[in-house]
Design brief:
Helix 6 packs antiparallel against helix 7 and helix 7 runs antiparallel to helix 8. It is elongated and about 60 Å long. By secondary structure, it is α+β, with helices and mostly antiparallel strands. Strand 5 and strand 6 form a beta hairpin.
Length: about 260
């Protein structure tokens, strides 16, 4: 069968006007001014995309505006293993983004998730990390900074990231260094933590569409629970920090205090 009749996957390309992603959203009038540019760019982008992947495997199925400052193209793809991460960082794609003042997101959806040629199964659950994702900071670094041991904690984090030690062990070691942090430090952190640009709007859009949202973090429950309420998430899962005499202790592993 041809690609059009029985595609193995569909490539969903979503175009966001950069102004749409800013923390203080512009007026509706300025967002609408970006829409013609978004809608008109599909032919140019189709040509560019064809130069990045095999043109024979690519066919534009639809292109439309979804909201002010947001448009989406859907392509059929005969290659279900396309590396969308590499495509996202291709020099020609980033140059296109810069010249059109856009942010472009790629999603490759297998044919098994499509109900009809133009309708795919709706997302039911969206799960997010917390540190450096929904928020701009790393909570454990902020805790370390409060007692002046950022370098020591960051060194253990680097070892864990490099695979030299397991995450649970790195967590125990870092928490051991944090003895002396007051238990009410979370109150101070809440006033200094900044939410990532666009996170609030994304969560609201997902929830408006009936998607269950959650934050799942290797960080700490007090901040994850606060963020859940702050952004209107449905669930929050994170490590519980044991306390003794008002200070965090090192008895944390696999998300639960040890006996």
């Amino acid at each position: 069968m041809s690609t059009n009749e029985d595609p193995e996957a569909k490539l969903i390309v979503t175009f966001f006007a950069v102004s749409r992603l800013s923390q203080s959203l512009p007026s509706a009038q300025s967002l609408n001014a970006s829409d013609p540019q978004l809608v008109a760019c599909d032919n140019a982008f189709s040509s560019l995309l064809g130069s990045c992947v095999s043109p024979a495997s690519l066919n534009l199925l639809s292109h439309k505006r979804h909201a002010p400052g947001v448009a989406q193209s859907i392509f059929t793809m005969s290659n279900p293993f396309l590396d969308t991460t590499a495509l996202r960082h291709d020099a020609s794609v980033t140059a296109f983004e810069a010249s059109h003042n856009l942010e472009i997101v790629f999603d490759l959806v297998p044919s098994s998730l499509w109900i009809t040629p133009m309708t795919y199964r709706p997302i039911k659950l969206a799960v997010f990390d917390m540190d450096s994702t929904l928020i701009n900071e790393e909570i454990i670094d902020e805790l370390a900074r409060s007692i002046g041991i950022t370098a020591a904690v960051s060194a253990i984090t680097a070892r864990a990231m490099n695979g030299e030690i397991e995450f649970a062990e790195s967590l125990r070691q870092r928490l051991a260094l944090l003895k002396g942090v007051k238990a009410n430090v979370w109150d101070d952190l809440r006033s200094s933590i900044t939410v990532a640009a666009g996170a609030r709007e994304l969560i609201k859009t997902l929830r408006d569409q009936g998607v269950v949202t959650a934050v799942v973090s290797g960080g700490f429950a007090p901040m994850a629970e606060w963020l859940k309420g702050h952004l209107g998430l449905d669930h929050a899962f994170a490590n519980h920090v044991g306390t003794g005499l008002g200070i965090p202790d090192s008895s944390v592993a696999n998300g639960y205090p040890l006996p």
